[in-house]
Amino acid sequence: MIPVTATISLEEREISMRFLRAPGPGGQNVNKVETAVQLRFDAANSPALSDIVRQRLRRVAGSRMTRDGVIVLTANRFRSQERNRRDAVERLVTLVRAAATPPKPRRPTKPSRAARRRRMDDKRQQSGRKQLRGKVAPE
């Protein structure tokens, strides 16, 4: 079990990992060792996620989520497979945690009377400035 929040835990069997050859530094090793990790998590069919979290996760994940609801993360920051695997799992946990926290409700506010007055004064000043830019009448 991978703990995400107090109420959400992902089972390790829900996550599949594939190993790829990573780009970047590594010398001759880079051509023969598959250190990059491609993590796949089927969020659409995960029993650990509620419908609300699933919807938020779709928004948070963006292009990292396929149309079928599978999150695909590729980790190749490190030169070792184990560190890349840990990095991919941590990034998935961060995504799910961000989706699990409900958004703060927006409180509608009104501009203060002083702010409205300042805005109108600025508009009057701007209007006066533009009036002076008109054509000069012959005398």
Sheet with most strands: 3 strands, antiparallel
The total strand number stands at 5
Strand content: 15-25%
Radius of gyration over C-alpha positions, nearest whole angstrom: 27 Å
In DSSP terms (H or I, runs of 4 or more residues), the helix count works out at: 3
The name CATH uses for the topology is: Double Stranded RNA Binding Domain
Overall pLDDT score: 86
CATH class: Alpha Beta
**Range of helix content:** 25-40%
CATH architecture: 2-Layer Sandwich
Number of domains: 1
Low-confidence stretches: none
Structural class: alpha+beta
Q: Name the overall outline.
A: elongated
C-alpha end-to-end distance:
88 Å
Order of H and E elements: EEEEHEHH
List the strand order in the largest sheet. 3-4-5
Give a structural overview:
This protein has helices at 51-61, 81-100, 113-132, and strands at 2-3, 9-10, 15-20, 36-42, 70-75. It is built from 3 helices and 5 strands. The protein has a single domain, classed as 2-Layer Sandwich (Double Stranded RNA Binding Domain). The model has no long low-confidence stretch (mean pLDDT 86). The chain has a 3-stranded antiparallel beta sheet with strand order 3-4-5, with helices on one face. With 139 residues, it is an alpha+beta fold.
